[in-house]
Amino acid sequence: MLDKRRCGVLLHPTSLPGPGGIGSLGTDARRFVDLLADMGMSYWQVLPLTPPACGNSPYSAFSAFAGNPLLIDLDQVAADGDLSVIKYEDDSDETCVDFETVSQKKMELLRTAGASFLANDVARHKQEFWDFCNTTPWLHNYALFMALKRKYKGKSWEKWPAELALLTPEKYEKASIELGADIGIQKYIQWQFFRQWRGLRGYATDKGIAIVGDIPIFVGYDSADVWSHRELFLLNSKGKPTVVAGVPPDYFSVTGQLWGNPLYDWETMGRQKYAWWIERFRALFELFDVIRVDHFRGFEAAWQVPAGEKTAINGTWVKAPGTALFDTIFAALGKLPIIAEDLGVITPDVEKLRDRYDFPGMKILQFAFDSGPSNPYLPHNHQKKSVVYTGTHDNDTTVGWYHSLSDTQRSRVSCYVGGKGDDTVECILRSALMSVADTAIVPLQDLFRLGSEARMNVPGTAFGNWSWRFTWGMVAADLASRVRKQIECYGRV
Q1: Which residue out of 38, 94, 351, 394 is catalytically annotated?
Q2: Rounded Cα–Cα distance for residues 463 and 473 (Å)
Q3: Alpha-carbon Rg of the chain, whole angstroms?
Q4: Residue 269: which CATH number?
Q5: Is it the case that residue 91 has pLDDT exceeding 70?
Q6: Which residue, 444, 415, 445, is CA-closest to 431?
Q7: What is the pLDDT of residue 104?
Q8: 453 assigned to active site
Q9: Backbone angles phi and psi of 348, in degrees to 5
Q10: If you count Cβ atoms within 10 Å of the first and of the last residue's Cβ in the chain, which end, N or C, has fewer?
Q11: Is 404 part of a structural domain of the chain?
């Protein structure tokens, strides 16, 4: 995998059409898989499927292991007998997720379904549920964390009573008993997510579509991972981060990006033989065929910013255990198909780490035209062992990006790709397909030729992102045949 000439589409499941105000793992997801197969695609790339926390970002989640409850298809839950038939309101915006409204309504229904299932001794799939609970090592910590978070009105765990924030084994047992009913519902919700995802992935496999997942290098501070494994992170005695993650000034921001995630205590992780990372990769490769490792350079060195800084400017690069970590993971799990997100400040040491394991890197065409002919993102400088993108979830759409350029910049792009005016965008897409890179991934927005209104994320902004959805009305009748003809032309079917 990743060593044959293939093509795929980037689309997060929240962006799928369908009832309920947000994309789900139901009928429309399967219809989208059918569309990919008709186009001759080989990959469906998604963003992290974890439960989003601050700002609804999939890159800041309540757990590095759990699934996003908002993606659960309620019609399947009803078909299982845990809910009455769902009647959807039709007043939601079909092209934008209202996360607050969707979360409130959907979580209420899922909690009702969970309570019904657990109270029914003869409920269907009961043994399957118990098997899931008994074989999912992270599940109880996550369910307890979410039950406590609900009890304390959504507050971050460091604002809970001290004996629960800095949990002891005794308090762990007591809280598990006291919150048993809510913990059971949380486990039910996760069981529904994973059984639905397995069903969707199996459908995709049957259609010849491999799923490319995404693993953020860092985890959110307000997460079950940090709360239950404080020893693995650089925290003080009160559980507060001493340093936080970010990146220095770059293409996206003159002050850098202050992500705020806690950083790993690599020394402690090393003494534990990186067990937490092995389990994380093991869990994700049970969900996906390929994984894109976000911020890969952080495994060689991470930008550490003192806690309390307002921007990421005053950080320093601090070494990470790259080789020791991946050697240990591969010794435990075997060679894994990984895409290295090698964007940003990339040094020879980062390239050496990437190439040691034959990880393909990423080539973003929107980054290709801000310097001369030696720019590594220009197609004539690509390598076979790489993945070319027109743009990613962090970029504007290609139409929006092109129209944001100055006349001089647009002229430079048009000269290179051979287009004129708006035809240039079509030529940029063709350049991605033409590239010598083995894999080409195109955001669905670019296949639809949509503008900035369809952008998924603006890095450095905390709110107003991740909400774009498509409708089936955006799919031209001849889209599949046109795209298939193109990717056949460039040997990617």
Answers
A1: 394
A2: 28
A3: 23
A4: 3.20.20.80
A5: no
A6: 415
A7: 95
A8: no
A9: -55, -35
A10: N
A11: no
